[in-house]
Amino acid sequence: MKYFIAFTLAFCFTTNINAQDKINKDSLEVAAVIHQMFTAMKTSDTNMLRPCFSSNAIFQTIVNKNGNTEIKNELVQDFINSIGKQTAGALDERITIGSLLIDANLASVWTPYQFYYKGQYSHQGVNSFQLVKLLDGWKIQYLIDTRRK
């Protein structure tokens, strides 16, 4: 009986370590996609930016106009095109990963940020990402952000 208990504990401990290793690996992969997006923005590299998104990603911004909250939709391709028109170094969005949650093939990431344009502070807010793990890796499916001075 004590061998059975020892085996069961060893199995559970090993299974927990393997599950934790997968979560850690996924967390690193998710964070890498987000950092790739911001590196691509800073370097104006659309070839690096495009693969960060799923083919049907949704991109939105929460805007406060005259005390009214509105949601502005943007096509991901329009965002990519606008990044390609910038000079390298003009866009500098400095983020921290505030939280990163994963369940199976879904990840949710919260990133507070400060945005600088051509070296000058512009605004700050929070990005909320939803990523999905597809056959070719983690992709941004949904991005919504806030913006304030």
Describe the structure.
The chain is of the alpha+beta class and 149 residues long. The protein has a single domain, classed as Nuclear Transport Factor 2, Chain: A, CATH 3.10.450. 37% of the residues lie in helices and 45% in strands. The protein contains three helices and seven strands; from the N terminus they run ααββαβββββ. It has helices at residues 2-43, 46-49, 76-84; strands at 53-65, 68-74, 91-95, 99-103, 106-117, 120-134, 137-146. Strands 1, 2, 3, 4, 5, 6 and 7 form a seven-stranded mixed sheet that branches. A hairpin with a 2-residue loop joins β1 and β2. The longest helix has 42 residues, at 2-43. The radius of gyration is 19 Å and the shape is globular.
Outline of this structure?
The chain contains 3 helices and 7 strands, in the order ααββαβββββ.
Helices, strands, pairings?
Elements: H1 2-43, H2 46-49, E1 53-65, E2 68-74, H3 76-84, E3 91-95, E4 99-103, E5 106-117, E6 120-134, E7 137-146
Parallel strand pairs: 1-7
Antiparallel strand pairs: 1-2, 3-5, 4-5, 5-6, 6-7
Task: Give descriptors for this structure.
alpha+beta; Nuclear Transport Factor 2, Chain: A; 149 residues; seven-stranded mixed sheet; 7 strands; 37% helix
Any idea of the CATH class?
Alpha Beta
N-end to C-end Cα span: 66 Å
Indicate the low-confidence ranges by residue numbers: 4-17
- Count of folded domains: 1
CATH topology group: Nuclear Transport Factor 2, Chain: A
Shape estimate: globular
Structural class: alpha+beta
Mean pLDDT: 89
CATH architecture title: Roll
Name the beta content range.
35-45%
Number of helices: 3
Number of beta-strand segments: 7
- Helix fraction, binned, reads 25-40%
